[in-house]
Amino acid sequence: MRVSVVGGGAWGTALASHCARAGLAVRLWAREPEVAQAINGRHENTLFLPGVPLPKELVAFSRLGDALEDAEAALVVVPSEFSRRIYRELRPVLPPEAVLVSATKGLEKDTLRRMSEVAAEEAPGHPCAVLSGPSFALEVARALPTAVVAAAEDHAVAQRIQRALATRTFRVYSSEDVVGVELAGALKNVIAIAAGIVDGLGFGHNTVAALITRGLAEIGRLAEALGGRPETLSGLAGLGDLVLTCTGALSRNRRVGQGLGRGLSLADAGAGLVAEGVRTTLVACDLARREGIEMPIAAQMKAVLYEDTSPRDALEALMLRSLKRE
To answer: What's the pLDDT score for residue 325?
Structure first.
């Protein structure tokens, strides 16, 4: 399969590197010309994934049309806030039969859309799949064993992506639950910020375990209300990704939360990081309000991030909620 990866950040570079190792003909588009030059000349993304050698077969471009030439699949790996613009830009240069694969774990702030919905609106007529699961970019780039989920409403499309990307170190499961996979991948970032706050405040493993468990419950309530399947939430895209992002040292959202818990401002805690959970918190709360779903952790993260509530007060508010049956 001829694959184009749209996005030269850490995750996009890691996926492109994996595709090259898998024997696929892969082209990477990076908006920054210096990133493309470094990948082609030094076989390293010195800006976003420094110190990780990349396959010599990986070729990078700074012109979108060049990267998408003859592509059979386009993996779109850009932050959610730029996704609509990118899908709009790739529409006139994307080959007609190419499959769009969203690997962005976020939601659009103003419209509350999932990324596959944005893709369908801006680049209609293309089969669409999503790729998600517990997968730190650095570990994928280093070919450490990883398992993810490829989901598409047409299961044949999901299986096509599954077969193309699966290797001995990158196991891909297929699913038809696009809603559940996308929402789980996006919403876990909100809980990861809370987990980072717990760590930054110096609380213990008990607190993190409770947070992950109750976080999964509220993600599940919203996902199921919007059409997601319960089994998805207990799988790789749900529980697997949630545990990784809430406990792993490489988690950007957790690092933002750690900074907040230690008393830093949001600007200082998130400096230099693309933490999707900050924006997704607003979307989660808007979706919960629209659907009449209770999401107390997301509500307290909104209070911390946007309403000047102290992290300690937010955690205390969660502990002091009225007692309930589990």
So the answer is: 83
Active site residue ranges? 188
What fold is seen in the domain 2-176?
A: Rossmann fold (3.40.50)
Fold of 180-319: N-(1-d-carboxylethyl)-l-norvaline Dehydrogenase; domain 2 (1.10.1040)
Interatomic CA distance for residues 249 and 181, integer angstroms: 23
**What angle do helix axes 178-200 and 311-319 make, rounded to 10 degrees?**
110
Do 80 and 7 meet the contact criterion of CB atoms below 8 Å apart? no
pLDDT of residue 324: 84
SS (H, E, C) the chain: CEEEEECCCHHHHHHHHHHHHCCCEEEEECCCHHHHHHHHHHCCECCCECCCCCCCCCEEECCHHHHCCCCCEEEECCCHHHHHHHHHHHHHHCCCCCEEEECCCCECCCCCCEHHHHHHHHCCCCCEEEEECCCCHHHHHCCCCEEEEEECCCHHHHHHHHHHHCCCCEEEEEECCHHHHHHHHHHHHHHHHHHHHHHHCCCCHHHHHHHHHHHHHHHHHHHHHCCCCHHHHCCHHHHHHHHHHHHCCCCHHHHHHHHHHCCCCHHHHCCCCCCHHHHHHHHHHHHHHHHCCCCHHHHHHHHHHHCCCCHHHHHHHHHCCCCCCC
- Residue 184 token pair: 């789980």
Beta pairing class for 128-132 and 146-151: antiparallel
Give the domain ranges of the chain: 2-176, 180-319
Closest Cα partner for 237 from 320, 154, 130? Answer: 130
Where on the phi/psi map is residue 113: left (φ > 0), alpha (ψ -120 to 50), or beta?
beta
What global pTM score does this model have? 0.96
Write out residues in the chain with pLDDT < 70, as ranges.
Answer: none
